[in-house]
Specification:
heterotrimer, A mainly alpha (284), B alpha/beta (496), C mainly alpha (337), A: mainly alpha, two-stranded antiparallel ribbon, globular, B: alpha/beta, binds adenosine-5'-triphosphate, binds magnesium ion
Chain lengths: 284, 496, 337
């Protein structure tokens, strides 16, 4: 039976798959990534802070860092949750790295520790969300303030600066022999991995299913709580990574680094998501 | 044409190329109970939604008292005195029971403010006329499927409609509740209300209906007087063939105990429930709505763990706290509430069927899409699901076909212990026979089956042993040979 | 149907909590008050509490409207921009015509708020744009209009007549006008959400939109209404803001929308729709106000303040939802009478 024949014939009448692997892959994967990129650029120019000059600068130049945070945000938004704390986690992780560096720790060790802190930050949020069974918005409203606050606690009114060139390369450098920024390569390879996980793995299926009917997924024997913890940990990790890239690009870290980026990230992802699903299916 | 009728002529309706109705005629007179019969996916619910203005027909006309009417939305139907209970549950989870009944028509005081006191009083009255006693301040979220069904019935009755439509109102109810409902239906009929009644339980139709209209594949077959037809004739009209045996129970030699439940207790739900389930056995679980059967099975499956007591699977004492753990022990649970617990409605058939077994199709997380599709295809084919493709969204399937997808989903997990909670709710006669023979087959292969059903004939016809619950307690256990309808009802009501 | 399930649930502390879902929040607030006032006796004084109330009045009003929107499964992110725009418009009018009667300024504010809110409502119901995207858009547009309208100019205290400044701050009954206005808004919201058909329809729509539609609720109308109300409340709040802070600026209330959402959800409004109460939202706003005020009075280092604030919000949420979960379990048990 082919696609055009939609009549319900009696009983056993299930057609074979109508979309080929390749066309499906192309349709979803690249469409999504391209859309997000597009939306971010359009978004940063049109709204919501298009008149706030400082923000405009930041939004267009912080694209790679935002992109890194957007990838896990897609996961989170697909499950019907949201992570308000991404930019705060970015700030906390970058500040932590700065603090360690100021105290004479090797920059790469400091960076590794910052990534771990990001994972821990996501773990805490994810654990509270699944344990208390509350919407992510409620918990991340708290962590949003808490993590940013910790950034101030760590650095106060100081700034960390003087990072070695080998480190600032990840934010400022380009590939040898080509004018392609390293951070863009980082983002694109991450985007590929996230896209594959979302569409080609069981984990990705779970995310969509949780977004539509969490209870049915629980009844299907899938450890929903664990899935949620994982996506928030990934979100923490990626936010911390974005923090490193941003600090590397600035060449310094202040505790307010990346402030306000969360709204742009969430906006971009929810727009792409709404465009893909149509308004009717959009949660909240 | 007599006065006071609802008449539909030549109604057709299709969804994206699927012909749900093709040139259907239907006539409903005041003062009659008119049954609508047809297989799953025959178009019954679609016809109902055309009458209530949820769907607009592609072709055809609707006449009320010989005046042509056009229904653009459900409000207009309500204004004309048409009230309906839809097949899918449509309660408001966060509103309490009373408000669920009166939503859209809350009584008000002279000041225009909502009269809560009157609302509770009227709700109390309505529900007790249905024999239901619930705390009216309970949120609908916390009700069982059957309880929600009763609330919806009360809602439809509260309108004082001239035309009352009930799409499978009894599919989750047991004898007692059905009897109460039918008493009210008869009273309404005497008062001249026109009633459209849908049910897959044929014996109910013979009890309550005056006439019956049969649909097949979206087309009109015939309208007959209930006095003039036999059950066999009706089945032939709707299926186009005869169904040999509704309860093809094989005799299986039962093996060792695989599931032992000892003094299981959860406060407010059930108390000290003990039983054993053997390999190859079908253990039926009977009881009235609210007896705690679903709660017990949910506790076994780890959805809401019990407070006290012990569960022993294949000789190992366990404390099951999550469905994933239960599945690892070889359990599967077909839940009662397919909408909320069984299915992810906006996803397609493949996704739904393979959800619990996705990990089997993945290697290092990578999904083998082809084999997952094949598995889904095989499972739904076996269950005789009617759909266009395995890519169809489950939401677009008819109620009975959705139920079949739930069955397919859990059977493809290949459990050793299978818990079925109202497995054939909303499934038509023909497929029901197929499901029963499949159950029998599975038992013969050595699977242990615990079957909750509100349909006594199903319990009596399929079970090796029958466990009866009342008020959260086990009140009877019968062997197949000694069980009778009377004995079970007695144990279920404790009307000694 | 079962008539008498064993009455296992004794009336307990938990059932009291179940009756008054806000008790957990009240408990936390009381605890907080005790801790802060042990640190700083100046905290627990009438004047300080009057200050707190004054501080949270505008937040509370808008959080109520926000909560109402969230109950329908929507969100209104344009609240702060609407507030800023009406504040600016009213302030300009008052500057140009210092003799404008106060009633007229209030009317002007609410009317322009109503227009802005209806635009949101229309985009969402007629344009079928998801609320978060629609109101993020108008958040930008309305803020842009503030710039456009003011050409970047600010209204300063000297520009405003003292009668207008007194609108929010006059203290007729031991409480400032603004607090009284907020209380009136809260009272109206309470009656509206609990005792009118339209108010109840908001809950019905939020808890099951499809069922609401087939039950004959005009869902689009209800949706439009909540955004309209949100606009009106923001308009009123805009007038009060201009009067209270004696100024209108291009960045008035920038980022305030997040606080209104926070107050609403901390107060127990569910992002999934259908759940939320007026007392809950008020307590949510009060909690935020007390934390803010307590931190200012305390001698906690400036660098620690934000972290402590976040920590306290987390603590409140954890406490509240732990208790809510226990209640849910009893509710599952107590359905049958
Ligand atoms: N919204 C929809 N989109 C696509 N197809 C639909 C939709 N609603 C119904 N159908 C199709 O129309 C046909 C008739 O469905 P309907 O729900 O009327 O069956 P039914 O007779 O009520 O069956 P059941 O006994 O299972 O309730 C089915 O094939 C179904 O898949
Ligand atoms: Mg149907």
């Amino acid at each position: 039976m082919n696609t055009t024949d939609k009549a319900v014939s009696a009983f056993v009448s299930l057609a074979r798959p109508r979309r080929s692997f390749l066309s499906k892959f192309l349709r979803w994967e690249w469409f999504l990534v391209a859309l997000i990129a597009l939306v971010v650029i359009v978004n940063s120019r049109l709204s919501p802070y298009f008149l706030d000059v400082q923000n405009l600068f930041r939004a267009s130049s912080d694209f790679m860092e935002m992109g890194l945070m957007m990838l896990p945000m897609v996961f989170i938004i697909v499950t019907g949750n949201v992570d308000l704390a991404v930019a705060s986690t970015l700030g906390m992780a970058a500040s932590f790295m700065g603090l360690l560096f100021n105290n004479g720790v090797n920059i790469w060790i400091a960076a590794g520790a910052a990534l771990l802190l990001g994972v821990a930050a996501g773990l805490l949020a994810g654990y509270l969300i699944s344990r208390l069974k509350v919407p992510a918005l409620v918990i991340t409203l708290g962590t949003y303030a808490f993590y940013r606050g910790m950034a101030y606690v760590m650095l106060g009114d100081q700034a960390a600066r003087g990072y070695p060139a080998s480190f600032t390369y990840i934010g400022q450098g380009t590939l040898p022999g080509a004018p392609v920024p390293f951070s863009m390569v980082l983002f694109l390879s991450m985007a590929l991995i996230f896209g594959l996980v979302l569409h080609k793995t069981a984990f990705g299926r779970y995310l969509y299913a949780i977004g539509h009917n969490q209870e049915a997924v629980v009844y299907s024997g899938i450890p929903v709580a664990r899935v949620k913890v994982v996506i928030f940990m990934v979100s923490g990790l990626m936010s911390a990574l974005a923090g490193l890239v941003l600090a590397a690009r600035y060449g310094s870290t202040r505790p307010d680094i990346g402030t306000g980026l969360e709204l742009a990230v969430i906006t971009a992802v929810s727009r792409a998501n709404a465009l893909r699903h149509g308004p009717a299916e959009y949660p909240g | 044409m007599s006065e006071n009728t609802l008449r539909l002529t030549n109604i057709s309706k299709s969804f994206a190329g699927v012909h749900a109705l093709r040139g259907v005629h239907f006539e409903l007179r005041l003062g009659e109970v008119h049954a609508l019969l047809g297989e799953n996916g025959a178009g019954k619910s679609t016809l109902v939604k055309v009458i209530t203005g949820v769907h607009q027909p592609d072709t055809g006309e609707i006449y009320l008292n010989d005046r042509r009417i056009h229904l653009a939305d459900p409000r207009e139907a309500t204004a004309l005195g048409i009230s309906a209970i839809y097949q899918e549950l449509s309660t408001f989870p966060d509103l309490d029971i009373a408000e669920n009944i009166f939503v859209g028509r809350r009584p008000t005081l002279a000041s225009g403010l909502v009269n809560w006191r009157r609302m509770y009083r009227d709700a109390e009255q309505l529900l007790s006329s249905l024999g239901v006693h619930l705390d009216l301040k309970t949120k609908a979220r916390y009700l069982s499927v059957a309880q929600q069904q009763m609330v919806e019935i009360a809602r439809a009755l509260s309108v004082n409609a001239r035309i009352l439509i009930m799409d499978e109102p009894t599919s989750a109810l047991t004898l007692n509740e059905v009897a109460d409902l039918f008493q009210i239906v008869r009273r309404l009929r005497e008062n001249g209300t026109a009633i459209l009644f849908i049910s897959h339980r044929l014996e109910e139709l013979f009890e309550i209906a005056d006439r019956v209209t049969v649909l097949r594949d979206g087309a009109y077959v015939d309208t007959r007087s209930m006095n003039g037809v036999t059950q066999e004739e009706l089945i032939r009209m709707m299926v186009g063939r005869t169904v040999k045996e509704l309860f093809p129970k094989k005799d299986v030699k039962v093996g060792e105990v695989v599931l032992r439940v000892n003094k299981l207790t959860r406060k407010g739900a059930f108390r000290s429930v003990s039983f054993e389930l053997h390999k190859g056995e079908i253990l039926g679980m009977a009881g009235l709505v609210g007896a705690g059967r679903t709660e017990v099975s949910q506790a076994i499956f780890g959805v809401i763990p019990a407070d006290e007591g012990m569960i022993e699977i294949e000789g190992k004492a366990l404390r099951i706290t999550s469905p994933s753990q239960a599945m690892e022990c070889g359990l599967a649970y077909v839940p009662e509430d397919r909408q909320h617990h069984g299915l992810v409605l906006p996803m397609d058939i493949t996704d739904n069927v393979t959800l619990p077994i996705l990990s089997r199709f993945s290697r290092w997380g990578w999904l083998a899409t082809k084999s997952a599709q094949q598995a889904a295809y095989d499972a739904v084919t076996q269950m005789e699901v009617r759909a266009t493709t395995v890519w169809q969204k489950v939401r677009e399937l008819s109620g009975g076909n959705q139920q079949k997808v739930v069955l397919a989903k859990w059977l493809s997990t290949h459990p050793r212990i299978l818990i079925l909670d109202e497995p054939t709710r909303g499934i038509d006669v023909g497929t029901k026979a197929a499901v029963h023979s499949l159950m029998s087959e599975l038992a013969a292969q050595g699977i242990a089956i615990l079957m909750i059903s509100s349909e006594l004939p199903e319990i009596l016809g399929m079970s090796d042993r029958i466990l009866v619950m009342h008020d959260g307690r086990v009140t009877g256990l019968f062997n197949r040979s000694e069980a009778t309808q009377e004995k079970i009802m007695m144990a279920a009501t404790q009307a000694v | 149907m079962t008539t008498n399930t064993p009455a296992l649930s004794r009336p307990s502390l938990l059932s009291l909590f179940a009756r008054f879902r806000e008790l957990a929040l009240v408990g936390f607030i009381v605890l907080l008050i005790i801790v802060i006032s042990l640190q700083n006796p100046r905290f627990l004084t009438f004047t300080n509490f009057r200050d707190i109330l004054l501080d949270i009045s505008i937040l509370a009003m808008i959080a109520l409207a926000q909560g109402m929107v969230i109950i329908t499964r929507g969100i209104d992110l344009s609240v702060a921009s609407m507030l800023a725009l009406t504040a600016m418009m009213v302030a300009f009018v008052v500057k140009a015509f210092p003799d404008t009667p106060l009633v007229f300024t209030v009317l002007l504010g609410t009317a322009s708020g109503a227009v802005l809110g209806s635009i949101n409502g229309l985009v969402i119901t007629v344009g079928k744009v998801p609320p978060i995207i629609a109101t993020l858009g108008t958040l930008g547009v309305y803020r842009g209009l503030v710039f456009f309208y003011s050409k970047g100019n600010w209204i300063n205290p000297v520009d405003l007549p003292s009668s207008f400044k007194q609108l929010a701050k006059a203290v007729p009954l031991d409480l400032p006008n603004l607090v009284i206005v907020a209380l009136i808004v809260a009272a109206i919201a309470y009656v509206f959400l609990n005792y009118t058909r339209a108010g109840r329809d908001i809950y019905a729509l939020g808890t099951n939109p499809e069922a609401a539609k087939i039950s004959g609720i005009r869902t689009d109308r209800v949706t439009f209404m909540v955004y309209l109300i949100s606009g009106i409340v923001c308009g009123l709040a805009g007038v009060m803001w201009a009067s209270r802070f004696e100024a209108a600026q291009t960045n008035t209330a920038l980022g305030f929308e997040l606080q209104t959402v926070a107050a609403a959800v901390i107060g127990g409004v569910s992002m999934l729709g259908g759940i939320g109460t007026v007392p809950g939202v008020l307590l949510g706003a009060l909690l935020l106000g007390i934390i803010q005020n307590g931190l200012t009075l305390s001698n906690i280092s400036q660098f620690w303040q934000l972290a402590v604030q976040g920590f306290l919000i987390l603590l409140a949420v954890i406490l509240d939802s732990t208790i809510q979960q226990r209640i849910k379990q009893t509710a599952v048990r107590g359905a049958v009478k």
